[in-house]
Specification:
This protein is an alpha+beta fold. The protein has a domain at about 35-110: MoeA, C-terminal, domain IV (Beta-clip, Beta Barrel), CATH 2.40.340.10. The protein has helices spanning about 10-25, 80-85, and strands at about 35-40, 55-60, 65-70, 85-90, 105-110. Strands 1-3-2-4-5 form a five-stranded mixed β-barrel. One of its GO terms (cellular component) is cytosol. One of its GO terms (molecular function) is molybdopterin molybdotransferase activity. This is Molybdopterin molybdenumtransferase. Its EC number is 2.10.1.1.
Length: about 120
């Protein structure tokens, strides 16, 4: 049995960070490595420092290449941003506030999508 938080985004992040590895260990196999791409944010993101944060994000094409745009500010209980997102933006604990152009690690929900990932 694997207990997860009740909010959809929190449950997904917890499963991706802990649940996949736990299930892989129970099955006697190695967990898949998390895929992450360094991308710049297209707009600022207000947050408190001190811990890593995962935010739902979409990929956008800019003049400088692919970037990440945070979608659905307002908490991990909202389903719509999760449905609209292409993946999760991992924001390092030392970033606060996060400015447009700062780098995050983008973890896609799926690879491909014709975007060179």
């Amino acid at each position: 049995m694997l207990g997860l938080p009740g909010n959809p985004v929190s449950a997904l992040v917890s499963f991706l960070l802990l649940g996949e590895a736990a299930l892989a260990a129970l099955e006697g196999r190695r967990a898949r490595p998390r895929i992450g791409y360094p991308l710049r944010l297209v707009e600022p993101f207000a947050r408190r420092p001190g811990r890593p944060e995962f935010a739902t994000a979409c990929l956008v094409e800019t003049a400088d290449g692919l970037a990440a745009a945070i979608v659905g500010r307002g908490g991990s209980a909202r389903l719509r941003p999760l449905a609209e997102a292409d993946g999760l933006a991992e924001i390092a604990p030392n970033y606060a506030p996060v400015r447009a152009g700062d780098r995050v690690v983008f973890h896609p929900f799926a690879t491909g999508r014709g975007l060179g990932l």
